[in-house]
Amino acid sequence: MNDPVNDRLITHLRHVDLAVPDYDAQLRFYTETWGLSAETTDDGIAFLAAEGSPEQYSVRLRKDDAKRLDLISFGAADAADVDALAQRLGTEGVQLVSEPDKLQTPGGGYGFRFFDNDGRTIEVSSDVAVRQHRKVEEGESIPVKLSHVVINSPHPEATVAFYDRHLSFALSDTLTSPHVGDVMWFMRTNRYHHSLAIARCPHVSLHHASFEMRGIDEYMRGTGRLLRAGVEKVWGPGRHMAGNNTFSYFLDPHGNTIEYTTELEELDEDTWHPHLYDFSDPEVTDQWGTANPMSEFVAKKSFNDPDRGVFVAPPV
User: What's the CA dihedral at 264, 55, 14, 307 to 10 degrees?
Assistant: First the structure.
């Protein structure tokens, strides 16, 4: 593994961009039900912000004939780091989708895009204007920020190696079992336990996107609000062992799994050693014992539909 800090040019997770056929239903869900704010909307595209986040937006929705993950966006400290990373990736044979340039999305900035080994579009940017955000109040059951994104891969070991080698993500923990072997790798790009996780799956797809809530009370209020609204719950509420974070997984109108979470573990990167957790132990998947058991239903929902955007850059 690389030096987890000194080689690292990526600072944090910015946003996740989704394309869907039923754009209007998706937009209503993410704003009226999930609790994001429509900062900027245009014909068939919307930029949705989390109230507590300085990021211009945490989710971008785009109308398209096919459901797909458009891209995952990460931040860099400055334009020099963006240029250095683009040069590094190009030299190492990674396929760039665009060269570093001014961004035309809300908040501007400077960035570029590339394909990872599975064909997902990844964006890295710097100098994006800080959004006027606010402190989420006690009892407010809306997302503070985008916490992490989990992706599915049919070749997860190669995908883990890609993010380690090319982007200096560090491994925090791995889920395994005696029966099926390793199934999920949690990777970090700062002190938080994971900004990205990679799961074993028959195909490339989005596993889930997770949103941080203010605290346990707000997380439970949000979970209950979605249940009362009739949103399909996949798994939770509970508390994972890897990352020590709470979880409640739901399905958006297009079948993407999305999560409310809180209290994701912050690590001392100098002293942390990755664990190998046996997820056949119920306490590993849910320390509290309050969630429905991990089952084939939960796993199948998290597999999602095969991504239609593999090695096809989004049009915007």
Answer: 110
Inside any domain, residue 24: yes
- Domain with 299, as residue range(s), is 145-303
pLDDT tens across 215-270, in order? 999 999 999 999 999 999 999 999 999 999 999 999 999 999 999 999 999 999 99
Q: Do strands 196-200 and 205-212 pair parallel, antiparallel, or not at all (unpaired)? A: unpaired
- Predicted structure pTM score: 0.96
Residue 2's pLDDT is 47
> What does DSSP assign to residue 30?
I
In contact, 9 and 16? CB cutoff 8 Å: no
Beta 257-261 vs 246-251: how paired, if at all?
antiparallel
Q: Strand order of the sheet with strand 145-153?
A: 233-239, 246-251, 257-261, 205-212, 145-153, 196-200, 181-188, 170-177, 275-278
Dihedral of CA 232/236/237/239: which sign? negative
Pair 231, 239: CB distance under 8 Å:
no
Tell me the two tokens of residue 15: 């946003």
Q: Do 157 and 296 share a structural domain? A: yes
Answer yes or no: are the C-beta atoms of 16 and 149 closer than 8 Å.
yes
Q: Is 139 within a domain?
A: no
Q: Does some domain include residue 3?
A: no
Q: Are residues 112 and 241 in the same domain?
A: no
